[in-house]
Description:
This protein is globular. The relative contact order is 0.09. By secondary structure, it is an alpha+beta fold. Strands 1, 2, 3, 10, 11, 12, 13, 14, 15, 16 and 17 form an eleven-stranded mixed β-sheet that branches. A four-stranded antiparallel β-sheet has the order 5-4-6-9, with no helix packed on it. The chain has a two-stranded antiparallel sheet with strand order 7-8. The chain contains 18 helices and 21 strands.
Amino acid sequence: ANGANKGETQTRARGASIKSIDMAKNTSRRSTLDQLGLGPASHNRGTASSCDGERIATEAICHLVESGRVSLADAQAAVVRAKGTNPSRKKTRKEASPPGVHRTRHVALKFSYDGSQFTGFAENVGTEGDNSIEKALFTALEKTRLLVSPEENGAFVLRKQSSHQEDESEEGHGNAISARTAAQYSRCGRTDKGVHAHGQVIAMYLKSAFPLSAKAAIMGSDDSRSQGEDLHDGSLPNNSLDKLECFVLPRRKKQGNAQVQLPAHELRTISEYDYAKVLNNVLPSSIRVIGWCPVSPKFSARFSCSRRTYRYFFPRRDLNLDALAQGLKYMIGRHDFRNLCKMNCEQVYNFERVITSGDVVSPQKKFTLTQDPADSTVQLGARKLESAAKESPHDICHVQIEGQAFLWHQIRCIMSILFLVGRELERPSIVRDLLDVKANPAKPAYDMASETALVLHDCKFTRLNPGQTVCNLWNVTKVLETRWETHAVAAARANDELESIKLNAQVRWDDLVQFVKSVASERRRKEQRRSHLTSSDEAEIMATLDDAKPSTCTISWGNAVSIVEGALGIHPHCPSGVNQRPKGLTESSVHVPLMHRSKGTTYEEKVQSILDGANGKVKSKRRDRYEENVIKKRKTSEEDEAFYDEMLKQGGSSL
């Protein structure tokens, strides 16, 4: 009995000891939680779904502290960071000092781009998968911190203070649009998807290397420098090569916890940012900035441009360049181009444009078209080029068109008509008929020329002289040389394969005759269905085949192609201006004259449709856009002339 009582007493003692240890552990745990700021009050804020996660996290951190793996101070700091509060900081995030205001300068950038991989120049705001050139540009500007927020934009802040106006932000685009609006962004041309540019120009306010608080350095009689008044933009260098001495605020330095006492201003020699080089370091290689210069405050890359020059490149093939030049001659001068563009009636009401000059250039000959300012007559001149090679279907030619402004898709529509004239499917006078909007107010149906061969070649300004540096142009030239080599080698490979097939491949004569007869028969059937007239060219085709019949049963593919071209007048390539064969276009296709084709709606009918159809949501938006862009913004010819006279005076120089 005594042994049993003794064992029971020992068991109760052990139980009491374990209970006291558990109570001590709980007390220590509560103390640890209180010290970490994880007491009961902090758990009451959690939701039911987060309780398990909080309990596990709490147990884990307490275990680390109690095991000695993590110090209490480190755990406290971790908890404070997790809560998002730091009592040791003197200022919270809301109380943080505002960002500094930087000096910004109105700068014009001249650049080139290969538009093959882009969705166009203009950024499609809010569109998923947008891959525009503007988006790449603004990404680079933000990455390099050359484009600053409105609060940091010194020029914008000063304008805002002087005019006492609040910042107007555009909806749906956040900070990027606000920064763009504050920077007074403008662009010279808006190219479509796949179109390229060699002389595109944009203008905007960008961050300067010179602080806003910089003071002028005045030279004394003993070559000493004394501090003068604040630097103004007119006294800053116009390029990145020239340097300027000025007094600026020194950068703050610390030695331990104590700040070093610095002078109010210190003398420094500063040069402006090389905007072209800085941006080219982060832009894709298909976009290259060529040069820059500061411009006047009212300068607009769009409205200050006096001439825009486009070039369209194409292989000679079977084109009659003399006829093509005759067709272009009708377009020189002021005309209504509504039948040679895509009408955007919600934004444009005047379709008159002036084409000042044009050129048709081949390796052997150059046609030049200019207008005599005295009597407005158009002069067509032709000049043979010296040391020119023999004409070849693979000669690369181009049409150059120059004017102050162009309509939507105007160049591509012009080239589509000129190619029909060059292929001798239409007379050159068809251009005159299309420009006569009284006789032909509606546009006939036709496809535009391909965008891949179109280049915005140059943008000319009356008073703009962008500067370039040797270092930047050297790097740009290396990129362009690499691009040229890639395309030139690819073209040489394709040409080598063409010549190899023409020389080595053999086809049977009876197979060739059957092909020609089949195409000719299908073409006659289509012509008869369209005109209801029976015409036969079978005898002429058979005579051509009999004259070319070889002495053997086979013929080389090069000779076979020549026979088909002579007998049928067709060629084994897409029509000029088309990079992919349109749907339905075959070797037996028949050309329908433009004036015999179906016509679209006239401008007046389109406007009436916008004004009448205001019931639906989409149609109501169209009417709102028409009233905003056309009715409210319509100006008289005198107002337009005065506006452009003022804008053409704006500009700048790097010299």
